[in-house]
Structures are given as C-alpha cells and as structure tokens.
C-alpha cells in the first residue's frame, strides 16, 4: 500500500511554502510529504487522522505534523452557510530548510530543539494568540517573512503543546497500492454514521477479513472498530460543542445503536461522559 506522497509546490523565492485555505479542498486524502506541516485553524472544525491518532480540531487550534507521517484532514460537513466555510493558514517547511547547516546558529537553538522534539507531532489547544504571528508569515516579504516563521516556531513551546502520535508508532515503508487506503477512508467517511461490517471493509480493500484487519492495524495503529468508534466520538464531540441536540439524538446521529454503548465508548475515548463534555 502506498500512502500517497504529495509534492508540496515549491517557490524559488522562498525557503518554505505557505497558503491560506478558505475551503477544504487540499486535505481530504490520506497522504504524507517530506515537509513538516503546520496548520493554524482560524475558522472551521473537524477531525485529523495522523499516524495512529484521531483528534478533533476546531477554531483556535494549531497542529504540527512531522514529515513522512501519513495524515488526513476531515472537515465537518455541517459547515456554516458562508462563502468561506473555513479559514486555515498552512505552512510547509523542511526540517533543515534545505541546508544541513541552516539551523546551527546559536540564535536558532530554540527552533532547533522544537523541531528535534516534533517527531510525534504537536497539538496546541488554545492557540488564538498565535493568529497574528501566522498572519505575519503570510503578509511579510523577503527576510521578514522568514524571521516571522522563526519567531512563530520559537514561540510554540511556550504554548504547552501536547503530543499527537504514540511513542510506539513507526512509519512503515510505502508500497504500490495508492488507492486502497484512500478508498477505505472515503468509505468510512461516507458510512460511519451507519453500521459498517468488517466484510464490507474487506471488500473495499479487496482482501480477506483476516488480512484486512492485519493490514489496517499496521497502517493506522488501530483495529477497524477502534478507528470507526474514534471517528464517531469525534463527530459526537462536534455536536456536543455546537448543537443543542438531546444526547440520545447525538448518539444515533454518530452511528451508535444504543445509548449504553455510546456512553461507554465516549468515556473510554475522551475520559469524560457526554454530559460532562458538553458542560
């Protein structure tokens, strides 16, 4: 299976890449790239799949994804009815910025330490104070743009980021089945609110059930049931944060057949009950 390697477009005028996304058109594919990815969410919410972790995100969050770690961004379907449903600043850069000696300057020791520790990814929950720093990276030119990025990276450790990927996660060698994982992700995304049979997933992957289970656990670090349940709970968390729906309605809308199972799974994944989470 190849998890698609994406080539981030390069510019001869800059040592890193940057853009502002106002619509979720670049992210919904299971992929990896050579560059470190840094995303700041100004507007929008959803779920990010990264290595062996599934994590809900919302406005005010910042996420750093290490190089060569497969990931997939799933923005919530219930997007506001506006012309620009999301607003995300996206930055891609190589760890050494294309030069092995680039970060050896003493003044950049903090940036160097941050990047050395970033191999498990980072998640900053309350990062709204970083918005202006991200915007400066977009708007500045020449050396000021590069200095703005260094200033931003230097600031990240003070925001108390948490790790995303488990210590046991290992990046696997990629092989030659690019479509398989994306077909699976698309199928799960379209059907997680309904009952998904293991046999159906195995058919999508064109494998036997036993082979599929081994394959999926290798690629995601989770069993299919764990993966689907975490996606369902991420959806439930979105509903609890944003909609005054009764808990039982959220339970069924998230793909669970009974409230007891929903409550138990929710607490095991989030560490709290749905009621406590809403409060």
UniProtKB/TrEMBL annotation:
Metal-binding recorded as keyword: no
Domain HTH araC/xylS-type: 182-279
Keywords for the protein's UniProt record, in alphabetical order: DNA-binding, Transcription, Transcription regulation
Pfam name, any one: Cupin_2
A single GO molecular function term of this UniProt record: sequence-specific DNA binding
Protein known as: AraC-type DNA-binding protein
